[in-house]
Write a structure and sequence with these properties.
Layout (H helix, E strand, L loop, with lengths): L10 H11 L12 E2 L5 E7 L6 H8 L2 H4 L2 E7 L6 H7 L4 E5 H9 L4 E9 L9 E5 L15 E4 L5 H12 L8 E4 L5 H6 L5 E5 L2 H7 L3 E4 L1 H5 L4 E8 H6 L1 H20 L1 H12 L3 H4 L6 E2 L5 H13 L9 H4 L5
Parallel strand pairs: 2-3, 2-4, 7-8, 7-9
Antiparallel strand pairs: 1-2, 4-11, 5-11, 5-12, 6-9, 6-10
Helix pairs in contact: 1-4, 2-11, 2-12, 5-14
C-alpha cells in the first residue's frame, strides 16, 4: 500500500537548511578542523542527548577519542532536527542523527554521508524501546480493534510513525484507516487517560510511566516493522568527508569501541545516562535500553529507505549507495 504523506519531524530543519544555503549545499560543512602541535585533531560533534548517544559520552569519558588522535567537543542539540543545520553550517563536523531524518535530508538534496551507527532496531518485542499502549480500561482488547482509532505519536512523518504504520499493515490492519495525532512524549499518558487518543506509541523511559499507570501493552512496532535496521547513525557532510577521511575513520573507530563497551556493560550506560540526558537515576536503572551495535551496513540502511519511499515519506530519491560510506 502506498500513501502520500511527506510530513517529517526534521522537515522544518531541512527546509531552513535549503533556504539558507540553496545551491551552496555543495560546500556544506567545509569549515576546517584544527590540528595541535602533538597532531591531535579538534572537531565538534552535534547530537541529541539521549540514550542512543551514550557511546559518544563513553568514548569521551574513557579517553577513546584521545586514543585515536581526536579532541572532541560534544554539543547537545536543542532538538532532534537541529543537528542537520549545525552540520551544514560547519558549526559541527560530525553528528549523531536519526537514520530516517538523515535519509529525508539526503532525499531533499542535503549532501550528508553516513559512516557508522550506535544503535540498531531489535527483533525482540519485549526489548524494543518503542511500544504501543491503550488505557487500562480501554475497550480495545486486541490489535485489530485499533482500526479506525486515533494513535498518539511523538512526531508525524518520522521514524516512529513510519514503523508504526508498517507494523500495523504487517499485522493485518489498514494503517490508512487509522488517525495519527502528534502528541509530545511527556503528554502522551495524560492524553491517553483523558481519552484524547485511543492508544499511544511511546518510547523508553516513558513506557515505564505508562506501565506504572496500568496501561495495557499492544504492540512493539520497531520489532515487527524494521528489525535489525539502523537506528541512530554517525553523519558528516560530503565536503568534510572529502578533505578529512582519516579524521572520520578515527572517529568511527573510537565510537565503535565505545558502542561495543555499551553493549557489554548496560549498567555503565545506566550510570552515565543521568549525567548527560537528565534522566532520573531511578528511571535510568530500570528503563529499556536500545540495542547498541556498531555493525553499519548498506543493507541495514535499505530496510528504512525502501519503506520511506513506499510510504511516501520523501519526495526525492534516496541513493543509499552514495549516502552510505563504504567500509575502509
Amino acid at each position: 500500500m502506498t500513501t502520500t504523506i511527506y510530513r517529517t519531524v526534521a522537515a522544518g530543519a531541512i527546509a531552513l537548511v535549503l533556504a539558507a544555503t540553496g545551491t551552496a549545499c555543495s560546500s556544506a560543512g567545509a569549515k576546517p578542523t584544527t590540528v595541535s602541535a602533538d597532531g591531535t585533531t579538534s572537531i565538534t560533534v552535534t547530537l541529541a542527548p539521549i540514550v542512543d548517544s551514550a557511546p559518544l559520552y563513553i568514548a569521551q569519558e574513557k579517553g577513546l577519542f584521545k586514543k585515536h588522535g581526536l579532541n572532541v567537543k560534544i554539543t547537545p542539540a536543542p532538538t532532534m532536527g537541529a543537528s542537520i543545520p549545525a552540520l551544514v553550517s560547519g558549526a559541527a563536523q560530525i553528528g549523531v542523527l536519526a537514520n530516517v531524518d538523515a535519509m529525508q535530508a539526503s532525499a531533499a538534496g542535503i549532501p550528508l554521508r553516513l559512516f557508522g551507527t550506535t544503535t540498531v532496531t531489535t527483533d525482540k518485542p519485549a526489548q524494543d524501546p518503542g511500544k504501543v499502549y491503550v488505557a487500562k480500561n480501554s475497550p480495545i482488547r486486541e490489535l485489530s480493534d485499533l482500526n479506525g482509532k486515533t494513535i498518539g505519536v511523538s512526531g508525524l512523518g518520522g521514524a516512529g510513525e513510519l514503523s508504526l504504520r508498517v507494523a500495523l499493515d504487517k499485522s493485518g490492519l489498514d494503517s490508512s484507516r487509522i488517525k495519527f495525532l502528534e502528541v509530545p512524549l511527556d503528554s502522551m499518558l495524560n492524553s491517553l487517560e483523558r481519552g484524547q487518543v485511543d492508544a499511544i506509541n511511546t518510547i523508553s523511559p516513558f513506557t515505564n510511566a505508562a506501565e506504572a499507570a496500568g496501561a495495557r501493552y499492544i504492540l512493539s512496532p520497531g520489532a515487527v516493522a524494521v528489525p535489525h535496521a539502523l537506528q541512530f547513525v554517525l553523519a558528516t557532510t560530503e565536503q568534510f568527508l572529502g578533505g578529512n577521511r582519516t579524521t572520520v575513520e578515527n572517529f568511527k573507530a573510537a565510537v565503535d569501541e565505545a558502542t561495543a563497551y555499551a553493549a557489554k556493560n548496560p549498567d555503565a550506560v545506566r550510570a552515565l545516562l543521568p549525567s548527560f540526558s537528565g534522566t532520573p537515576k531511578d528511571l535510568a536503572a530500570v528503563m529499556q535500553l536500545p540495542e547498541f551495535n556498531s555493525d553499519f551496513t548498506a543493507d541495514r540502511a535499505r530496510i528504512w529507505s525502501e519503506l520511506i519511499t513506499k510510504y511516501g515519506f520523501v519526495k526525492g530519491k534516496i541513493d543509499v549507495d552514495t549516502l552510505v560510506v563504504p567500509k575502509a
